[in-house]
Task: inverse folding
């Protein structure tokens, strides 16, 4: 998933997106993706980890979720995630438009909900966790009447969030946040469209009518990452998908995804996975053969 304003395609029967099980961080069905780079969307996102370990970055703040931890990501908060140890749980996305209908002042509140930071207040999170497990089970079983029960649980979840986890948001904070997101959207969309080219900071700055110095500081402040690291993360993510889903050569993958050569791609890859791309691909194929053998 690119670092961008994400447009989520919600389910037809009920307006939510629900991911569950060990594929918690899968990206559009790819069974090897365990990193989702920085992005934002106009949805409430609830991350509940049953077992394993997942790292989340929300507005540049890092959180580690493990057994029975839950965290809510607010609408338009910039976030990313990395599956560290077979993260297993539920990820529920609820669209802004749906919430706005039934809770019109959603723009003036935000949710403070992170069980990892309130270890001594587990009772506060008990109902919410149970409802998330229930909606996961009911929706995925798909039995007669599942849509009715799913809607009922969805409203219960929203009521619990508004009643026990919301805080008022100053008007100035909302306005400033909207202005920043509009500017970020313009910057990110341009970089996303040109990530495979030789794209310098000066070129991006010129496109969005900012000085390179200002853009560099602005990017670091609001994204929590430097421009070059962000650009490399975009290139790396698309290169990774080709590595695990095609038989293209490492050099071809590197160059086609904006890296100057295979050496540059190898360096970043090894820093993340402790092996080079060739070894990683070989290990995946070996594991796949073992899993399909009788």
Result:
């Amino acid at each position: 998933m690119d670092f961008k304003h994400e447009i989520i395609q919600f389910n037809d029967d009920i307006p939510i997106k629900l991911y569950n099980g060990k594929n918690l961080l899968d990206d559009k069905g790819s069974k090897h993706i365990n990193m989702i780079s920085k992005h934002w969307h106009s949805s409430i996102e609830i991350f509940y980890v049953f077992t394993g370990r997942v790292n989340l970055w929300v507005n540049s703040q890092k959180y580690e979720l493990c057994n029975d931890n839950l965290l809510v990501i607010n609408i338009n908060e910039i976030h990313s995630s990395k599956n560290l140890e077979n993260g297993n749980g539920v990820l529920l996305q609820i669209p802004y438009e749906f919430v706005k209908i039934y809770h019109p002042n959603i723009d003036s509140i935000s949710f403070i909900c992170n069980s990892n930071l309130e270890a001594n207040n587990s009772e506060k999170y008990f109902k919410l966790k149970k409802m998330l497990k229930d909606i996961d089970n009911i929706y995925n079983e798909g039995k007669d009447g599942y849509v009715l029960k799913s809607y009922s649980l969805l409203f219960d979840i929203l009521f619990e969030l508004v009643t026990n986890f919301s805080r008022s948001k100053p008007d100035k904070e909302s306005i400033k946040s909207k202005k920043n997101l509009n500017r970020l959207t313009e910057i990110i969309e341009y970089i996303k469209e040109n990530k495979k080219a030789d794209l310098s900071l000066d070129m991006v700055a010129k496109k969005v009518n900012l000085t390179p110095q200002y853009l560099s500081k602005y990017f670091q402040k609001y994204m929590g990452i430097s421009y070059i690291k962000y650009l490399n993360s975009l290139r790396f993510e698309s290169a990774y998908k080709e590595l695990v889903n095609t038989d293209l050569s490492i050099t071809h993958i590197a160059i086609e995804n904006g890296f100057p050569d295979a050496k540059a791609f190898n360096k970043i890859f090894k820093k993340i996975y402790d092996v080079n791309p060739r070894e990683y691909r070989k290990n995946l194929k070996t594991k796949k053969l073992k899993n399909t053998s009788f």
Residues 171-193 form the longest helix (23 residues).
